[in-house]
Amino acid sequence: MAKLQPLIIIASALAGILLGRFSPSIASRAGGLIEVFLMILLFFVFLAVDIREIKRSFSNIRFSLAALGINFIWTPMFTFILGALFMAGEIDLQTGFIMLMVTPCTDWYLIFTGMAGGNVSLGSSLLPLNLILQICLLPVYLLLFMGDAVSFSAGSILTSILLVLVIPLVSANIVKFMIGKLLTAYSDTIQLFFLCLAVLAMFASQGTLLLANPGLFVSIFPPLIIFFIVNFFLALFTGRLLKLPFKDTIPLLFTTQARNSPVALAIAAVTFPQRPVISLVLVIGPLIELPVLAIDAWILKNQIKYM
């Protein structure tokens, strides 16, 4: 399963697109299942995390400052440059690209960190900061780079994300207290299973719209791939520069690569209901991102074996 992980995730995305295209009834229900699958998935992620270690993770100032610097200073500037180079004159395309890239992930990165054998508890310490900063700074980035006033309800979005994170965290620790580590042995396989279900649901919900605009995939693919390659090596270099253990560099790598497309998509749907291209960019992003993260996890996991 671990060796086939990238192919399994790609197959899930393609299956989701086909389901969305040929089964409208499934497509209409799939969107509501994404958060459910993510919550179950995160339950098994947190099941393997000692809550006491998350507190200690906040003391790692080097890691936190490096992650926040890359996510909220370097990435927005780099995103603007990529958008200007590859999407000049395409306002909606650039807006969607910026919304995708300036919102660091609050769930996927923990899953892939765990799959790669990285320090999940250290990565978890970034959740509150990533969550608060991206909601506060998203309108700032849009105003700074696009020049348009954007307004949306951050309160409702914050509440929904906190529920998706807090419920799995609390539930996992209750179960762990009651039955110990009984389920931990099966955690990796179960995580991959629910990750694939979440991917399938995400693409099923937007499959028809995506297939109707195939040219957007071609437009967004080059800048996204450049972003992933540059940030991959930037995180590795930063980890070595700061003399972080390799297992601590892994969450740094994934938190600076994984993007929060479900949250950005929800914001775009409310803020720009008459501009579907913006939402489509946020749907296409994970189609490229998830296979890349899966391949990264596979590479890093194998790297650990030889260290």
Strand content: under 5%
E-strand count: 0
Taking the sheet with the most strands, its summary is: none
| End-to-end Cα distance | 22 Å
Order of helices and strands: HHHHHHHHHHHHHHH
Q: What level of helicity do the residues show? A: over 70%
User: Given the structure, what is the number of helices?
Assistant: 15
Q: Helices and strands: which structural class?
A: mainly alpha
In short:
The protein has 307 residues and is an all-alpha fold.
Q: In words, what does this structure look like?
A:
- With 307 residues, the chain is mainly α.
- It has helices spanning 5-22, 24-30, 34-47, 51-57, 61-86, 91-101, 108-115, 120-124, 127-146, 154-179, 187-211, 215-241, 246-255, 261-271, 276-305.
- Helix 3 crosses helix 10, helix 3 runs antiparallel to helix 11 and helix 11 packs antiparallel against helix 15.
- The longest helix is centred in the last third of the chain and has 30 residues, at 276-305.
- The radius of gyration is 18 Å and the shape is globular.
- The chain starts with a helix and ends with a helix.
- The mean pLDDT is 80.
